[in-house]
Structure formats: structure tokens, C-alpha cells
Amino acid sequence: MIEVSCRLVRPRFVLDASFTAPNGCVALFGPSGSGKSTIVRLLAGLERPDRGRIVVDGRTLVDTEARIDVPVHKRRVGLVFQDGQLLPHLSVRQNLDYGRSFAPRDARGVPFDAVVDLLGIGHLLKARPATLSGGERQRVSIGRALLAAPRLLVMDEPLASLDAARKLEILPFIERLRDEWDLPIVYVSHAVEEVARLANTVVRLSEGRVVAEGPPNEVIGAPAGDAGEAAFPALSLVSAKVVHERPEFSVAILEHPAGEIVLPGSAFRVGETVRVAIAATNVALAVEEPHGLSVRTRLRGRIWRVEAGPGPSVHVTVELSGGDRIVASLTRLAVADLDLKEGREVFALVKTVAIDETAVATLRRDQAGPR
């Protein structure tokens, strides 16, 4: 459990934020200046709140009333930043050993070989950071943080400087940390696709305050504008089970009560339940069952809500058969011409190539929910 309740006053900025989240991956989301980095600094002990309390997994790091303020070197908070910050004159092995040197002698740290195996960096141990790709540098940076035997891992925009291919390389390793190692993670990102894939809990910040917190399907799916400038782009989360692999076409077929979902990629196994984040701008609606279309994903549902968006756009939320909801961003003209109203039956159409692979998460059994 991660508990944060802190107030910090600085020139032109006030942080007054409180949230409680179970272990797993807690994502901090919000625009620049919303307080994400300040919370990171408070967790690491690089800042001290004027008033407040921070507890991680039952251990109090800060309690201003009780005059508790655990020093930085005793907090056991592992930090992973955007640029990796490896020591350039040391080899990969030496960088990892440098991280291990910070582990307390009595700490039950993760074995060196286990970290190397988890991150797939055994073949890089003799290399220098300058010869590594961006994705390799980040994997080494994560390994160095893990070998310091942290009780909390804080990742501040760790994928921001990487291209899409390198992001897809790193994301599975972070998922394994979340699912297999039971290590609490605080993950800071501006990328909603990363948040949708990794987070068990999302904390949405605006102007130094928490404006929403909870599971991704509740916070990311909140109506646009509920949180001012911290609002997510219109995005829907839909969960379904893999029933067929088509590696010859680099796609997988998912079974959903509303219809089949065709996903890009071939890294899925039959029987897995996955959660897909779908941007509203990639969803079209049809008032009759479509035929003769190249679009493979066609989901049956009923219009639940129609709400005006900015300019010519309208957000139409469709409740799919089975209970998931998907948002389509349409023009006012299309809504008027098709007479799209609450309660009307429609089909939601999603192009497979429009689905961002970064935002497709494999769920554990306890995350999947009934289907």
C-alpha cells in the first residue's frame, strides 16, 4: 500500500495532494506543472513537505507531526529516469555492481543473475553505455535500481525518449516487475497508452491536486473535461480473451460478447485475457450491420451517451454487449445525419492498424474480471 498526503508551498506553486493505492503500479498522470515530479521528489526524500505523511508498504517515510523524516539513503527508493543516467566510464556489469553497492547488507536483495535474466542483458555485461541502444540503456538502468534492493521503484518518464519499437521492447519487462516481483512501482508518464497498459491505479493531477484516482478503466474512461486540463484524451479500455492466433498475418483474434476484436502483433497466447486501449478518434459507428468493409473489428452495442466535444466534434459513448463501453469521436454533422441518439443500436468499427500496440496489456486472472 502507498499512502501520500502532503502539502508543500513554493513560489507560484502549491502541492496539496492525497491518495492511497494498493501495491502494483501506480501511475501519476497530469500536465506539466501538475505536481508529478514534486511527488517523486517527496517519495525519494529530495524534498520535505511542509505538512504531511508518506507510508510505503507499512513503513513510514515521512510524518511531519511525528517528526519522522527517513534520510534519502535509508528510504530504499529506486529511481529510474528518462535518460538512464548510466556512468559512461563503467561497463554494464560495473554499472549494475554500482547499484548493488547501495543495498543494505541485511537486505534480501534480488540476485544479480535473476536481474540480468529478467531484463535480458546478459550479452551486454562487457559493453559500455555509449554502445547501447536507448532501450538497452533503460533496461540496464532498471537493473541498477533493482540491485539496490529498493522497497519502492519510482520511474519518471522512463520511455519518453524512446521510439515506438524501443517502448515495445521495454514494456514487457516493467509488466513482469509489476506482476512477478510484488515490488510497488510509481510510474510517471504523459503517455496515456503506457498508463493504460501498466497501471493498476491511476492518480490524475491538476495544479497540485488529485482530481481523480482509481482503476484505469474508471479514471481513463472518465468523461472528458471532468478534470480540466488534466483530462485524458478520449480513450476506451476493452477487455477480451485471445481465441485464435494468426501469425501469418501478424494478428490475434479476441472474443468479446459484442463481437471479434482483431489485434496487431503476434505476441499473444490463446486463452490470455488482454486489455486494449482504443482512441475515440479511431472509432467509427454504423447504424446497420456493415458488410463488404475492410474493417475487421465490429462490435455491437447501444448508445449510452451523446455529449458535445470541442469545435465540430461529439463524443458518443456506446455500451457494448457484455458491459464494456467504447467512445467514438464524431462530427456533429455525422451525428445529425445518422440520427444518433441515446438508446439506439449501433456497431462500433475499429481498424486493426489504428490500435497502438503500446496500449495492449495482458491481464492476470485477478485483473480480468468476469466475462
Folded structure, characterized:
- With 371 residues, the protein is α+β, with helices and mostly antiparallel strands.
- It has helices at 36-44, 72-75, 92-100, 112-119, 134-147, 164-180, 192-198, 216-219, 332-337, 365-368; strands at 2-10, 13-21, 25-29, 51-56, 59-63, 68-69, 77-80, 152-156, 185-188, 201-206, 209-214, 235-246, 251-256, 259-264, 273-279, 283-286, 297-308, 313-320, 325-331, 345-350, 360-363.
- The strands form 4 sheets. Strands 7-8-9-3-10-11 form a 6-stranded mixed beta sheet, sandwiched between helices. A 5-stranded antiparallel beta sheet has the order 2-1-4-5-6, with helices on one face. The chain has a 5-stranded antiparallel beta sheet with strand order 14-13-12-15-21.
- It is globular.
- 22% of the residues lie in helices and 36% in strands.
- The protein contains 10 helices and 21 strands.
